[in-house]
Amino acid sequence: MPQAEPFKILGEANGFPFPISLAVDVSSNHNWVTLGGVSSGTATKEQINTSLLRAVCLYWNLYSVKGASIKSNLLFSNKDKNINIDKDILSSNILEITPDPKNRVTPFLFSTKREEFSQEEINNAQGEAGSHIQVKVQVIKMYNGDPSNEDNFVGYGLKDFIILNSSSAFYGAYHDLNSRIVIASYDPLNLADFEGSQAAYYTGYVTYIKRKAFDVSLKVTLSKENGGETLIPFKSFSNANAYSTSFPLSPNLSISSTSASSSSTHVQSPSSSNPYTYGGVTEVNFSADTLLELYTYPDKTDK
C-alpha cells in the first residue's frame, strides 16, 4: 500500500480541520446506516465514536478506489453504417483521491474518472455511451429525528460516497440505457425500492426500472490500535433502467448489492430492405473486498 508523509494539523477538536456542519434527519428515509452500523433507533456512545473514527480514517487516509468495473456500449447498424463502440473503466484502473493527506483541508474531497465518446464519435453515431466513477468524501452528522435535538444524534456518515455510472443513448431514436450504483450512508432522494415500469416522458411508451437498496460492507485495513482489518457498513443503492420514446423495448435489467446492468436490442422495420438495429449495454460492478485502498504511515520505530 502507498505510504504517506506524517504531518500535524490544527483542527476543530473533532478529527477534522473544519466543523461538520451538514446535519441530516434520516428518520423518514427508507434506508440508512451510520459508519458505526446504526440503522434504526438510538446509538450508544461506542457506536458514535466508532462512526467518527471511521469517518476520520476515510477522510485522511483514503488513497484510491479500485476493483470497480464500468462498461458501456452503443450499437447501431443499417445498410450504410455499422457502429459498435465500447467505453469502459476496467477493474485494474485506479482512481487516486487528491490531494495527498497533509494537504486535505476542505470540507469534502472529490475525484472523478470518465471514459466517453469524442465529439467525432457522437456526430457519427448520433448518440453516445460513457462510463463514470466519482468519489466524494463528505462527512455528515446523522440524526434519527430533529437535528436540533442532540438526543437524536446517531453518528457520522458519508453522503454520495462512491458513484458508479454507465449510460448508452441514441439521440434520434431516444433509446436510453443506464446502470448506476451509489454507495453511501443514506439516499438524499429517498427513493423506495421498485421493480416494474412507469410511463415514459412525452409518449405512450414506458420506462423499465429495477431499483433496490442493499446492505454492503467495504473492507479496509486500519492501524492495529484501531482494529486492523475492518468492515465499514454502507448502503448500496443499485439501479438499472431502460426507455425509448420511439419504439417498445424488451430490456434485460439486473441488480445486486455489487452490480447493475441494462441491455437492449431493437430491430426497426426488420422486413424492409434497410432495417435499423439499435442496441446497447450498460454495466457496473465492484468488489467490496478490494474497492478501497488506504495510505499507511511509517512505523514510529522506523529510522
Characterise this structure.
The chain is mainly beta and 303 residues long. It has one domain. It has 2 helices and 17 strands. The chain has helices at 45-61, 119-125; strands spanning 23-25, 62-65, 68-77, 82-86, 95-96, 108-116, 127-143, 153-158, 162-170, 175-184, 194-199, 206-221, 229-244, 252-255, 259-268, 276-286, 292-294. The strands form 3 sheets. Strands 1, 6, 7, 8, 9, 10, 11, 12 and 13 form a 9-stranded mixed sheet that branches. It has a 5-stranded antiparallel sheet with strand order 4-3-16-15-14, with no helix packed on it. Strands 5-2-17 form a 3-stranded antiparallel sheet. Strand 11 and strand 12 (206-221) form a beta hairpin. The chain is elongated, with a radius of gyration of 22 Å. The protein starts with 22 loop residues before the first strand and ends in a 9-residue tail after the last strand. The model has no long low-confidence stretch (mean pLDDT 90).
Can you lay out the helices and strands and say which pair or pack?
Layout: E1 23-25, H1 45-61, E2 62-65, E3 68-77, E4 82-86, E5 95-96, E6 108-116, H2 119-125, E7 127-143, E8 153-158, E9 162-170, E10 175-184, E11 194-199, E12 206-221, E13 229-244, E14 252-255, E15 259-268, E16 276-286, E17 292-294
Parallel strand pairs: 1-7
Antiparallel strand pairs: 2-5, 2-17, 3-4, 3-16, 6-7, 7-8, 7-9, 9-10, 10-13, 11-12, 12-13, 14-15, 15-16
